[in-house]
Write a structure and sequence with these properties.
Layout lengths: L9 H6 L4 H13 L1 H8 L13 E4 L6 E4 L4 E2 L1 H13 L3 E6 L8 E4 H17 L7 E5 L4 H13 L2 E4 L6 H10 L4 E5 L2 E3 L2 E3 L1 H9 L7 E5 L13 E3 H6 L10 E2 L3 E7 L7 E6 L1 H14 L7 E4 L6 H13 L3 E5 L10 H9 L3 E4 L1 H9 L3 H4 L8 E5 L5 H11 L6 E4 L33 E4 L5 E2 L3 E7 L9 E2 L3 H9 L6 E9 L5 E6 L3 E4 L2 E4 H9 L4 E11 L3 E10 L7 H14 L8 E4 L13 H9 L15 H8 L4
Parallel strand pairs: 4-17, 6-7, 6-8, 7-14, 8-11, 11-12, 16-17, 16-18, 18-19, 19-20, 30-31
Antiparallel strand pairs: 1-2, 3-13, 4-5, 9-10, 14-15, 15-24, 21-22, 21-23, 23-25, 25-26, 27-28, 29-30
The structure holds 5'-O-[(S)-ethoxy(hydroxy)phosphoryl]adenosine.
Organism: Sphingomonas agrestis
GO molecular function: acetate-CoA ligase activity
Enzyme class: ligase
């Protein structure tokens, strides 16, 4: 942690949309009179019917509901495209940088985007997709992924994007959970010079689902794939036959826009459901305030569309604001560790938003890769996804930004729809490692384990006391799970799952998850999911998974595995089990360390004591605490003696 202060520069304070006094005023109003504050903010969207009410919500069990602008009507795609046509139809909406640096970038104006999205929407309609249907996307980072999202929004279909790095099994589970009849994919994806067999993975997934009827395949590379007659459709063939005009469906403000699966502390991934109006408003409001976005600036969020960051800050937020959003197909370290900075120079990027894990990986390669590029166009830097260590923060600030660019360290979650606690570049003095202060409209509290609200400088668990428009509305198909997961631990409040410290200046410092979720390279992984994958292996009797510190990834995955009787524990089996998890879930779930454990530390009632497993994984074996309540205290000695790594 660090307490050095980086004040707002005079130039930023003078020119930014919101300065320090402006922030105080906005924040005060948002809390004192949320109704008028949010109806005012709602004017940033184009409505087919303007709403007369803002928030209507209760987090209490007997009256649990969350609605925003419920009497309003709009279309999200029309907000992201059509309304810009008259004023900036010729401006670049999507700027696409291919994986292969020698290839030409592609550029789509808002007018071209309109045509592409209408065509895609008509193809979906032609395949029978109707308002309210679920459409799964399993796509590489190509412009067609954005077209497909917006096409769903245009006709009122609910999209569910599954990250292209997930396995066929994981994909099948997500298709089945929301009963998707249509999958949109590409023949192949490209990442860092390698090919990803997306269509083949869909074929494998299809065998595990019953609902899937149509697969729409975008031809992204020259790679050949099998097409199943009657089920599979080449996108370019279908698109050639349809009109480039498609009316935007009027949608209720509360109609679902999308589902995005995310890991929780128990069970299988949850389908986080977001609304149309509240979500879009939040994405647009935060994108404009936090990045101080001005039309004409090139803005780059280097995330993947498979995660919420890609939804809110590559597609919906920037396009709602008429921005030029850069979409990057590749990876930061290919062909070499200079790629990000070369892309910045090539496209004169002014705002860059990325993850601490990428910065740590690039920092390790040395400053020369950065120094050989100009980066003069950069004016603002951002981070998201995990806490940023002060060392990486300073490197970003000094080496990448040459001390010139403020850093917005944005704390938020899939569930929150968009940024929640973050500096505003013209308003907030920065402290490396702190997400600083809540945005206007966000009411965070720190509570102790009993739920008592803690005041002043303190540490505890982070809850949000009031609803905000971008809040998720339910878990797809399981409203009770939504309530139970987020609103029962601290009654009447939304529980984030994060620990948090607040310092004497009122700044928030997120300390990481306090539940059984680990944050691997900024991606959420539920320990229960990895455990379920491990115990599916015929040689495994039991497994327990915890997080461990990792220099680059932030957290790594540490698995303890108890084998069935008479199975020999050797290096070959260790590799087999790691590969097994990789195949079951995807590369991001591969355990970094796997320890064979003859027994796991359990209480007499059979509950695994994860606290002890975490300590051992961290290498902190001197403070294991009280182990006397264990059914068999001797297992701990074995675990300590055979720790890996
Ligand atoms: C963590 C990603 C510290 C946090 C947008 C949260 C952060 C989880 C930050 C959500 C940050 C995200 N500082 N921690 N700036 N941003 N987190 O749903 O633990 O993939 O609960 O959303 O990431 O991850 P998710």
């Amino acid at each position: 942690m660090s307490d050095s202060l980086y004040p707002v520069s005079e130039a930023w304070a003078r020119t930014a949309r919101v300065d320090a006094a402006g922030y105080e005023k906005l924040y005060g109003r948002s809390i004192a009179d949320p109704g008028s504050f949010w109806l005012e903010q709602a004017k940033r969207l184009q409505w087919m019917k303007r709403p007369e009410v803002a928030g209507d919500w209760s987090f209490e069990e007997d009256d649990f509901h969350i609605r925003w602008f419920a009497d309003g009507k709009l279309n999200v795609a029309a907000n992201c495209i059509d309304r810009h046509l008259a004023s900036r139809g010729g401006d670049i909406a999507i700027l696409w940088e291919p994986d292969e640096p020698s290839e030409e970038p592609r550029r789509y104006t808002y007018r071209q985007l309109h045509e592409e999205v209408c065509r895609f929407a008509n193809v979906l309609k032609g395949e029978g997709v109707q308002k309210g249907d679920r459409v799964t996307l399993y796509m590489p980072m190509i412009p067609e992924a954005a077209f497909a999202l917006l096409a769903c929004a245009r006709i009122g279909a609910i999209h569910s994007v599954v990250f292209g790095g997930f396995s066929p099994e994981a994909l099948a589970g997500r298709i089945t959970d929301c009963d998707s009849t249509v999958v949109i994919t590409a023949n192949e994806g490209r990442r860092g010079g390698k090919r990803v067999p997306l269509k083949a993975n869909v074929d494998a997934a299809a065998g595990h689902t019953r609902c899937l009827q149509k697969v729409i395949v975008v031809q992204a590379t020259g790679g050949a794939v099998d097409m199943k007659p009657g089920r599979d459709v080449w996108y370019h063939e279908a698109a050639a036959k349809v009109s480039a005009e498609c009316p935007a469906e009027p949608m209720g403000a509360e109609d679902p826009l999308f589902i995005l699966y995310t890991s929780g502390s128990t069970g299988k991934p949850k389908g986080v459901l977001h609304s149309s109006a509240g979500y879009l408003l939040w994405a647009s409001y935060t994108h404009e305030l936090v990045f101080d976005y001005r039309p004409g600036q090139v803005y780059w969020c280097a995330a993947d569309i498979g995660w919420v960051t890609g939804h809110s800050y590559i597609v919906y937020g920037p396009l709602a604001n008429g921005a030029t959003t850069l979409m990057f197909e590749g990876v930061p370290n290919w062909p070499d560790a200079s790629r990000i900075w070369q892309v910045v120079d090539r496209h004169q990027v002014e705002i860059l938003y990325t993850a601490p894990t990428a910065l740590r990986a690039l920092m390790k390669e040395g400053d020369a890769y950065v120094a050989k590029t100009s980066r003069k166009s950069l004016r603002l830097l951002g981070t998201v996804g995990e806490p940023i260590n002060p060392e990486a923060w300073r490197w970003y600030h000094e080496v990448v930004g040459e001390g010139r660019c403020p850093i917005v360290d944005t704390w938020w979650q899939t569930e929150t729809g968009g940024q929640m606690i973050t500096p505003l570049p013209g308003a907030t003095a920065l402290k490396p490692g702190s997400a600083t202060l809540p945005l206007p409209g966000v009411d965070p509290q720190i509570v102790d384990t009993e739920g008592n609200v803690l005041h002043g400088a303190t540490e505890g668990n982070l809850v949000i006391a009031k609803s905000w428009p971008g809040q998720m509305r339910t878990v797809w198909g399981d409203h009770d799970r939504f309530f139970q997961t987020y609103f029962t631990i601290y009654k009447g409040k939304y529980f984030t799952g994060d620990g948090c410290r607040r310092d004497e200046d009122g700044y928030y410092w997120i300390t990481g998850r306090v539940d059984d979720v680990i944050n691997v390279s900024g991606h959420r992984m539920g320990t229960a999911e990895v455990e379920s994958a491990l115990v599916l292996h015929p040689k495994v009797a039991e497994a327990a998974v915890v997080g461990m510190p990792h220099d680059i990834k932030g957290q790594g995955i540490y698995a303890y595995v108890t084998l069935n009787a008479h199975v020999v524990a050797d290096e070959a089996l260790r590799k087999e089990l790691r590969d097994w998890v990789r195949a079951e879930i995807g590369p991001i779930a591969t355990p970094d360390a796997l320890q064979f454990a003859p027994g796991l530390p359990k209480t007499r009632s059979g509950k695994i004591m994860r606290r002890i497993l975490r300590k051992i994984a961290e290498g902190d074996v001197s403070s294991l605490g009280d182990t006397s309540t264990l059914a068999d205290p001797a297992v701990v000695d074995d675990l300590v003696a055979n720790r890996v790594g």
